[in-house]
UniProtKB/TrEMBL annotation:
Residues 402-436 form a coiled coil. Residues 1-32, 300-377 are annotated as: Disordered. Keywords: Coiled coil. This is Uncharacterized protein. Residues 1-21 have a biased composition (Polar residues).
């Protein structure tokens, strides 16, 4: 605070580190704006902070906007185990905390108890589940899965823990439950009573814990209404997975039989200490919803686990060619989101004239168009048969290409006919030369002569002449045998070249 009016002059005394000014003490009530005092900006901000601190709720009150801490629901999701594997779930009893034991130690203890080696189980995968305090052994072998399911004890860190493993149902099955089954039935008896010709095929059944309830897995999308258990008719209900909570320690996620920190003196109803030195009146308290009812009550809002939705996209509605809407598609959406927008961006506009929807950016992607606009667009992009055959209209480019191909085909056929006629004529000449009257004008051939054999042949110069005109119009031509064979080869070559195709039609 500093006075606005001039005060009495005072001589300051300055030391090395501090400087003091002589003055007189003033009561805080006298420091007001009416008496000429002004508040500094720094003091204003401090007063605001003090006011906010005074309005902050105390430690006992609940803030209207509580800070949410990270839970197991928001933890990193691990990749799924192979679908073709068989999953065996191990529930260890005796106070073992799976989160504090290495997965390698759990796997070694499991292999020793099952009598298997590391080489035999090289494809098996062990995955602990700390939220449920269990671990899963995934194996592609059914024989090893049966071996794992028969293990009843694990030795971990020089201590024996009893376990009750079971084979989990496959992921692509639906589950149902039946109640009031005989308590003396063994697991094999339950399977024999359920798997019969009266029930749907491809099913599996097991007892749920120690209760008289059997869990049945069906290899089909729906649960049947009735199940025949050993010839007796049972009503089958859809299985809804319940939320688990431990009544021994109050934690949520696992049951009391696998509790890592059991508290014997804890009340299962209200959770308070029930020792002899601390008597109490029990008021039930639900560990799931914190309601005033016991755990597992039908009025609990969190009794069942919420359904797990797949992260994969739902079925995409593919637009039909006739523009009709798929029955399962919602109204007003005949195409997937962004389909029209992508198609409009890919197809160039036909003209630069303004259209009714040109003022909106990508108007084709927002809402349906006017019916008149749809008709105009469809008629402008399609060519009808009447327009095609009408006089004075030019066919599309594809039809002009077809016409050119037809013309080329006709020309090729005409040339082939000409070549065929030429080949026939050449073949006739070859036959005439072969069957011609050959005369040896040099006499008999001397067999002792070393000179090459050059006998002469007398041929008609024009083989096409008629016999009546042979003496008057045709003259004789004398050729040797070598010249005769060379002429035959030349004619054969011309025939082959004539028979080779000159055009290729695709």
């Amino acid at each position: 605070m500093a006075p606005a009016s001039n005060s009495d002059e005072a001589t300051p005394t300055t030391d090395m580190d501090t400087s003091t000014l002589p003055g007189e003490d003033i009561d805080p009530s006298d420091v007001t704006e009416q008496r000429g005092w002004m508040v500094c900006y720094r003091n204003r901000s401090q007063k605001r902070l003090q006011a906010l601190r005074a309005e902050k709720p105390s430690q006992g009150t609940v803030s209207p906007y509580p800070i949410k801490q990270g839970t197991a629901k928001h933890a990193l999701r691990l990749p799924p185990l192979p679908r073709e594997h068989v999953k065996v779930v191990f529930r260890l009893q005796g106070g073992l905390d799976v989160s504090k034991i290495s997965a390698a130690i759990l796997r070694s203890a499991t292999l020793v108890a099952a009598g298997l080696t590391k080489l035999q189980t090289s494809e098996d995968i062990l995955r602990p589940n700390a939220a449920r305090n269990v671990f899963v052994m995934s194996t592609p072998s059914i024989e090893r899965a049966k071996t794992y399911s028969m293990v009843d004890q694990l030795n971990i860190e020089n201590r024996a823990y009893s376990t009750h493993p079971y084979v989990a149902s496959p992921e692509d099955t639906c589950k149902g439950v039946i109640h009031a089954i005989p308590p003396e039935d063994t697991p094999q008896d339950i399977i024999d009573n359920v798997v019969n010709s009266a029930n749907p095929p491809e099913i599996h059944a097991r007892r749920m814990g120690a209760a008289n309830t059997a869990l049945i897995a069906f290899d089909r999308p729906k649960v049947p209404l009735l199940i025949y258990f050993g010839g007796a008719e049972f009503r089958c209900y859809i299985h809804k997975q319940k939320s688990e909570a431990c009544l021994a320690c109050g934690a949520v996620g696992y049951r009391a039989d696998v509790c890592p920190n059991p508290t014997p003196s804890r009340c299962e109803g209200c959770g308070q200490n029930t020792s002899e030195d601390n008597p109490h009146s029990c008021t039930p308290k639900c560990p799931l919803c914190k309601g005033d009812h016991p755990f597992g009550d039908k009025s609990c809002t969190r009794r069942f686990k919420p359904p797990s939705f797949s992260s994969k996209p739902s079925n995409i509605q593919i637009p039909r060619q006739d523009g009709a809407q798929h029955p399962s598609a919602p109204r007003g959406k005949t195409t997937p989101p962004g389909f029209r927008k992508q198609r409009a961006a890919a197809d160039p506009p036909a003209s630069t004239e303004e259209k009714p929807g040109a003022t909106r950016a990508s108007g084709a992607a927002y809402g349906p168009k006017h019916p008149s606009q749809k008709i105009n667009n469809s008629t402008s992009s399609k060519v009808t048969w009447a327009e095609m055959v009408a006089p004075g209209t030019s066919p599309p480019s594809s039809y002009s290409e077809v016409a050119e191909l037809k013309e080329l085909l006709l020309n090729t056929l005409e040339e082939n006919e000409n070549f065929s006629a030429k080949v026939a004529e050449l073949q006739k000449q070859i036959a005439t030369l072969t069957n011609a009257n050959v005369a040896d004008t040099n006499g008999p051939i001397d067999s002792d002569s070393n000179s090459p054999m050059e006998s002469e042949f007398v041929l008609a110069s024009n083989s096409l002449c008629s016999p009546s005109k042979e003496e008057s119009n045709c003259s004789s031509i004398y050729v040797t045998k070598v010249e005769f064979m060379a002429g035959i080869e030349k004619i054969s070559k011309e025939v082959k070249e004539a028979m080779s195709p000159s055009y290729k039609i695709f």
